[in-house]
Every structure is written in structure tokens, then in C-alpha cells.
Amino acid sequence: MALNPLYVQDQLPKTSAAAIREFNDRYLAAIGASKPTGWADVLGELIPTDRPEVTFPVNQLRTKYTRTEGESKFKKLGEASFDVKSEEFDDGYQAKLLDLFLKVFAYRQWQAAPSRLVLAEEQFRHLQVASLLSNGTSTVCVDGQNFFSTAHPANITDSSVTTTWSNYNSTATNVLGSTATANGGVVSLDNLQTEVTSMQTQVLDENGLLYGADPDTILCPSDYYEPLKNMLAKDLILEHVASGTTPFNPAAAATNNFYKGRFNVVPVKEFSIASGTTADWYLVDSKMVRDGVAPWCSMRMTVPQSLALRVFDESTDFFKNTGNIKMSSHIWYGFGLVLPHAIRRIKGPTR
């Protein structure tokens, strides 16, 4: 008798074609039902394409009215661009055909495999974007500077705009405050307030004027998520002052948590938490992202179904040599850092 009485022998596949057909149907259903979720999809652009390489233009219109004196003023349309190339990646499953015919547990695993491929593809995007961000201090972006830099040009194509701006703090700064020790100890809002103010007052538009960035999202490593979330959920936070005899003395009264309800704190489990790494954190303005100022893009190349899901059934040499059937899923992706305006990176303390 089967482990689950709802499964009977008649429900098991009779041929490899039936098993493969069910796998294929479930894979397509999972793809169709999946929605872009998670920080890497929500805070960046997920772009479908049918080409292996795409050039993305970045326009610099620099529209700014000035007093009319003499002839009317005109500017040339400036444009920069960056390229994103897709690469092929794959994973798959194989199974002994006889097990699928006779064993309920093996058949259940075969049925569950398509949804695992969909989840693995989503996780793959997050890992790739996390790697892009982690290497953003040494990756040149469209304006010729590293993506996280203290000297981004306000205008990429017009040299008459000489101002620069920053989206990076390279000094170790704890998101939990200047009085915190690693991801514990006495918390404070001072570091967070300083970095929010820096983003608000440093990000420039193409005219060299303040863009109006106002972060509402914090990306942090998983080991800082719970303390940060709990700190920002409090109504009151105890302030501490320096003392000549002890490190800190609690103040007589607590201060209001002026950031309560302000930020969406997102734990990024894809960031390394190994000993010796830094607990870097990021401020993001999701409103700018929704307006088209995306910090990164994930480009997915669509291909024919025969290339995306490859079938090795009873007619193949693989089956004749092994008695196994297999399905191989192939995806084509390209990833790139785009515009640095909506994100700020702050170096964290060393673990």
C-alpha cells in the first residue's frame, strides 16, 4: 500500500513519455504562476529580451531654464550607454524510469522538481545581484566612476557641469548606531540619521542640483536584520552619553524613535556573513526605482522551449545506457549595475 492512500498504483506513469509530459506541464505551470518577488526583483529591473546583448541608452537632457538674454539657448542631446550580455546557465534532474513506474516517493520527487527549478532561478538572480553590489566599489558604471563612489559626475555628457556627488561612505559605520558593538550592545539612531541626511543632500541631478533622494528601504546582512528591525519598531530608544568612568551611562529619559514605521528593512541572506567580512548596508529610495532610476538590471533572454527544457527520454542513448530519463533546464541571463542615484552603500564594521 502506498504511503499516502490518495496515491494508488493507477496514478503512477505508465511510460517515460507520460512522466516527461507531466514534468514539462508542471514546469510551464510553475513558470507561468511565478511572480517577480524578493528585493533583487522589486528594487531593480527584470527585463525580458530576445537578444543575447542589449545596449541601454542613458539620456542626459539637462533641461534648466535661465534668463533670456539675446538669442535663445539650445543644448545638444547628450547620451551615454552601457551593454549587458546574457550567458547560459543550467541545472536539471534525472530519475530511474523503473522507480517512477513503481515507487510513489520517487514519483513525488519527480513531480516536485519543476517548482524547485523555478525557485532556484529566482535565488540565482538574487545571488548574482548581491555579488554585483558587493563588488560595486570596484565596478565601473555608465558615468565612468565605480558604481559606489564619492565622485560621480552630475552630468555624464556635458563637461560644463563640473559638480560631483557621492553614494558611498567608506568609513566603518554601524547601522545600529555609534554605541553598538557589532550587531549587539547599546543601539542608537545617530549613524542612520547621518547617512539618510547624506543621501538626501548629496545625490545630484544632471544640472548639478539636488535630486531629492529620500531613502525608505534598508538592505542589511541577515545577522543585523533582527536587531535593526527591533530597534526601528520601538516607540522609545534609550540615549546614552559618554562617561569618564564607564563607557556609557543611560540618560535620564528616552528619546522618541523618529524613524518608527519609516523604513522597510530587508535582510539580504545572499550577502556573506563570514568572519573577516564587513557588515555593509545600503539605503535605497524605492520611489526613485519605481520612477525608472533602477540601480541594477536582470536581463532574461527568452529562447525556444526546446532549448529551455531539454528532454532525454527512452529514445536517447542516455536512457539506453543508464535506464534513466532526465530533464535539463537552461536559462540565459545578463546582469548589470545601472544608475547609482537611488542607492547608497555604507561600509559596516568588520565581523
What does this entry look like structurally?
The chain is α+β, with helices and mostly antiparallel strands and 351 residues long. It has a single domain, classed as phage-related protein like fold (Alpha-Beta Complex), CATH 3.90.1690. The chain has nine helices and 18 strands. The strands form six sheets. Strands 1, 4, 15, 16 and 17 form a five-stranded mixed beta sheet that branches. Strands 7-18-14-10-13 form a five-stranded mixed beta sheet. A two-stranded antiparallel ribbon has the order 2-3. The model is unreliable at 1-10 (pLDDT under 50).
Mean pLDDT: 86
CATH-derived architecture: Alpha-Beta Complex
- Run of helices and strands: HHEEEEHHEEEEEHEHEEEEHEHEHEE
Helix content: 25-40%
Calculate the terminal CA-CA distance, rounded to whole Å.
Answer: 54 Å
Number of strands: 18
Uncertain runs: 1-10
Helix and strand content put the structural class at alpha+beta
Q: Main sheet? A: 5 strands, mixed
How much strand? 25-35%
Radius of gyration: 26 Å
Overall geometry comes to: globular
Oligomer: single chain
Here the CATH topology equals: phage-related protein like fold
Count structural domains: 1
The level 1 CATH classification is Alpha Beta
DSSP helix count?
9
